[in-house]
Amino acid sequence: MTATPDAKPLKGLFIRTYGCQMNVYDSERIRDVLKPLGYAPVEAPEGADLVVINTCHIREKATEKVYSELGKLKQMKLASGGKMTIAVAGCVAQAEGAEIIRRQPAVDLVLGPQAYHKLPEMIARASRAVGDRLETGFDTVEKFDALPKTREPDGPAAFVSVQEGCDKFCTFCVVPYTRGAEISRNVDDIVSEIRDLASKGVREVTLLGQNVNAFHGPAPRLEGGADWTLGQLVRHIARIGGIERIRYTTSHPRDMDDDLIAAHGDTPAMMPFLHLPVQSGSDRILKAMNRGHTADQYRDIIDRVRKARPDIAIASDFIVGFPGESDADFEATMQLVRDIGFAVAYSFKYSSRPGTPAAEMHGHLSEAVKDERLQALQSLLRDQQTAFNQAQIGKTLPVLVTGKGRNPGQMHGRSPYLQALHFDGTEALINTLVDVKIVSASLNSITGEHVRAREPAA
Ligand code: 5AD
Ligand code: SF4
């Protein structure tokens, strides 16, 4: 056991994170919440005092992984003589609640995404074997208020949650049930979190929300206090000293308003990358999904975004094999992909989720059909991704250096288009912005030569 300068004993904390960037952010905040209690992160679950599994419920596979992981942890807990505390957090915890403890009694605590600020209290109760081991309330505002006001960033890029939950109720999706109704944080809190991060060297922030462009948080009191849109928030954050790059994810086509689109063109800190899930290119399927837009409306949004920022990288999510999807519907998705040209995309086989309307629909497709369609779509998307990466060869791009690469003398960073990038350079460049000339590209990364350091933008 190690000791802090004031000789408080440290307890080992291991957090395993599944799922989306919101969970990555939540895991960071769980770490912050537990720090004052003497918990310090460790690299492996073996021997940890507290293991938190931050779970994802979006597809069946993600959920099943949780139970196999818990089986392994149970063995470790036995080996530790019962010393290890096991907590299940996140969306599976929210959806399945006490069922988790019934299925795996080695689990000590279950807490949903809006309850992790209560973790210290729950740990104390568990150690005295009194009170509730389950917290799955929905008070997002209380959570944000209760979280520590300062954070220790991991590097020059940080996630900042600005909005949570979803009221869109796409018929395939569990998020409205696990993350609850849509709520936005207030602008003052967001700005003070970002100022704190900037003072600790953060240069790039990614604003997070399940429906981030539905953001409608109360403005600073000095500005009148009425709700702001994401476009207004972005322009405001761009003025915070030290913040040179702003991203946001994930957005919904229905909330892509004119001001946000304009901000892509007129706000230099706004990075040329837009993750705008479309899910399908067939109007019939989009309707059955309750997406609230057509394929042509999506094309039109992308046209307008590209007018504002011609070099923007467009990313998306797709679901193949939604109930009732015909060959013609799938072909409409392939055509939309050909029409738009994506820089990167995530594609999934439809996974039936209990409690969602689509689970009850007719026309569920066989795994074989879903597999075939997924392969065809992914092959097209891979070609587009490779082409997008290769189109950067010969250009000089501003790169935020995030750490060391895999090979000696190699550094790693992110291009404006969110591509993973490697170049030969020294460790002194880490956490800075540099210009890199791109010399080669593959499906998943691009490689370049360091040209020069960049002065921070005025
Ligand atoms: N089956 C398959 N994919 C899903 N997604 C959400 N729900 C499901 C489901 N039931 C995908 C969507 C979403 C991404 C986060 O996960 O594409 O945008
Ligand atoms: Fe799920 Fe649709 Fe909400 Fe996205 S917009 S979180 S896919 S319900």
Bound chemical compounds: 5'-deoxyadenosine, iron/sulfur cluster
By secondary-structure content and strand pairing, the structural class works out as: alpha/beta
Q: Please state how the strands of the largest beta sheet are arranged side by side.
A: 2-1-3-4-5-6
Secondary structure: helix percent = 25-40%
CA gyration radius, whole angstroms: 23 Å
Total number of helical segments? 14
- By DSSP, the count of extended strands is 19
Shape: globular
User: What is the residue-averaged pLDDT?
Assistant: 92
Distance between the termini: 47 Å
- Biggest sheet layout: 6 strands, parallel
The percent range for strand residues is: 15-25%
Which stretches are low in confidence, meaning pLDDT under 50 for 5 or more residues running? 1-7
What does this structure look like?
There is one protein chain. The chain is α/β, with parallel strands linked by helices and 458 residues long. 33% of the residues lie in helices and 22% in strands. It has a six-stranded parallel sheet, with helices on both faces. Strand 5 (109-111), helix 5 and strand 6 form a beta-alpha-beta unit. Helix 9 runs parallel beside helix 10 (258-266) and helix 10 packs parallel to helix 12 (295-308). It is globular. The termini are far apart. Mean pLDDT is 92; it is low at 1-7.
